[in-house]
Predict the 3D structure of the following.
Amino acid sequence: MRRARYAVAKASEIVPNTATVVRLGNDADCALFRHNGAWYATGSLCPHQNTPLDGAPAIGGEVVCNRHGYRFDLKTGECRTIGGYGLPVYSVDVEDDTVYVSVWEFD
């Protein structure tokens, strides 16, 4: 297993407090957030009904799914609405105007 780091967006183009779905490599996406001065990346689909999180609001440290209002902690991915659901979370770094997301991948 190795840690892969992807340049996913320009920081200046990300709308604060709103999810932007970006590509991680060839076959995966994540939802990218700039919220209260910090950067977060989570899975791109709400696990309740696989609803895309693109455009979902970040409020009070949580992303809120547009479909049914399920709320997920941006730091941990834990669902605050109902047990048994969660989002994967990824490491985010910003250098100059480039946002990088790191994920663990199998070789």
